[in-house]
Amino acid sequence: xxxxxxxxxxxxxxxxxxxxxxxxxxxxxxxxxxxxxxxxxxxxxxxxxxxxxxxxxxxxxxxxxxxxxxxxxxxxxxxxxxxxxxxxxxxxxxxxxxxxxxxxxxxxxxxxxxxxxxxxxxxxxxxxxxxxxxxxxxxxxxxxxxxxxxxxxxxxxxxxxxxxxxxxxxxxxxxxxxxxx
Length: 181
Hints:
The protein is mainly α. It contains 9 helices and no strands. The longest helix has 24 residues, at about 145-165.
C-alpha cells in the first residue's frame, strides 16, 4: 500500500446514499465503495461501466482476471491486487500463475494467449497502445468484441488503481499482499 491511511475516509454504511445502500443489500460494503460513496453521482455512473467490465465482458473470467491482476501489479495497487487474487482464483487462476503475474509475459510457463494478454497489458500501461505484433497475435484467438473488452478492462483497472492509490483506500483485513517482481 502506498498510503497507510485514507486521504478520503470511507463513509460508514449508515452515511451511504439510500439508493447505493439498496444496491449493496445487507452484506458488507467494501472500502472501495464506501470511499467512492463520498461522490454519489460519480459512483453511480462509474458502477455501470465497472459492471460491464467485471460482469458483462465478452472475455473469459480467467482472461479478465489475468489482465486486472497484471495492471494492478504494474500500478502497484495493493487494494486492487488483494481483491482480485480472490476473484482470480475463483475464475480459474492457480496460485502459481498469480505469483507469476508479477514476473510478466516473459516468465516461463505461460500459454501463447496468456503471454499475449500480459504483453498487451504492459504495452497499454507503457504506451497506451497495443503493438501490431501483439494485436495480430491476440486477433488469432479473440473476437473484435473481446479485443475491445481487453482494452477497456485494462483502462478501467488502470483508472481504478490510480483512484485507489491516490485516495488511500485501505484493504479489508486478510487480503493478499502485493508481491514483489
